[in-house]
Specification:
Layout: H1 3-7, H2 16-30, H3 48-75, H4 81-92, H5 102-120, E1 130-131, H6 135-149, H7 154-172, E2 180-181, H8 183-258, H9 264-292, H10 305-311, H11 328-337, E3 342-346, H12 350-353, H13 356-376, E4 382-388, E5 392-399, H14 417-429, E6 432-437, E7 443-450, H15 451-458
Helix pairs in contact: 2-8, 3-4, 3-6, 4-5, 5-6, 6-8, 7-8, 8-9, 8-14, 11-13, 13-14
Length: 459
Amino acid sequence: MSDRDEARPRAPRTTPPAREARAPMRFTVVLRTPARATEPLFARAPKAWQRVLPYVVLGICVLSLLPATITVLTNDYEAGGGWAGALGVAQTVPLLLAVTRPLPAWAIVLVADTVGAVVLTHADKVAGHAWPWTPMSIVGYLALMICLGLRESIRTLIGVWLVTGGVGVVLGFFEPDGVTTTAALLFVLSGSFLAVTGALRGVGDAQQRIAEQESISEAERARRTLLEERARIARELHDVVAHHMSVITVQADSAPYRLPGMAEPVREEFAAIAASARESLSEMRRLLTVLRSDGNGSRDGHGSGDGGAEAGPGGASELAPQPGIGRLQQLVEATVRAGQPVELSLAAGAERAAPPAVDLSAYRIVQEALANVVRHAPGAETRVSVTHDAEEVLVLVVNGPAARDAVVEPGASGTGHGLVGMQERVRLTGGTLDTGPLPDGGFRVAARLPLNDASEDAS
């Protein structure tokens, strides 16, 4: 994701064929395994009709299978009205339980179908009809297989399939004469339904895990970017503060020679100040060593990606003084030489009014803003303005749309460090940052850096 993309997200253009291609993928996510044991199927589907769909389908199955089962058992098999009614209810009504508890519903229906098969062995007209599973019981059983496949684990599905086949084999020993055996049919169909629905459920689970992992990766990337920016700013602040600490040390050490006739207690006090300053510098340098280490014993100033960025337009090394508002003219001139039209408006005395933290932050904000213009809007007219008053420094970078004949490199996407770095620098000084696109297609970066708070933080 580029720096501009963070502030100005753009929806990708999606053609109708692309949306149609993604529709089945979205549907497989709806088929994922429920999070809790009693959670209904499709409970976390994004649309209300999808969440109600299992209840509607199974309700239709019950309303259609119940009278059909009673009618067929009574008229075709002549099993008796009482047995037909009891078996019809036992074989169909438990289907409603399959929405939330498909495994108990399967056990109830399997027992009811087995009892029905035993009862039909004594029916008057069982010969010439399907046995041990009637057509209605097969339809209801396959509906159960769909619910089980969308919910249970692979091991459970294999167990259900084997039990179904085992019950059919056992009932085969009591097969009446002249019947059409349906045990093998149900065994094959139930296995097919379990395999297909289980595979769909697995795809939905996999896509859900991928989406969760992408979300975690994005959060980690944003966190890593923020930490990298904070470490980079900490290194620069070290250089600013270390300069003042070094001056304090030299002044304290040289005070007895510059001010002869100093009393002994005063000498000791200056010596203690110098020792404290040297100890503070040593601690800061040890912390800086940790910050600059990339984990392989090397320093990021030598061979890391930040080295070039930190060097500035002139390619200065880390040992060079930190840049500030006074070097903005050089930065703008280097950008103009690179082919980018830039105008600079710099208020007189701005570099003297700003304390070191604000001075460095203002330069870095302009530097990153110009880098973004070169990367995302080459050839755009750009205006840089730095003004100040008694309370704050205002940094404003405004650019228009990219030139018509400019070619933006397709792969020129940033790492997301630019705007994050600006925000961290502004937050460090207690200021505010306002970034965003303009109606004409340009972009604006406005930073207000207070002078008083920054001075107190730096002291």
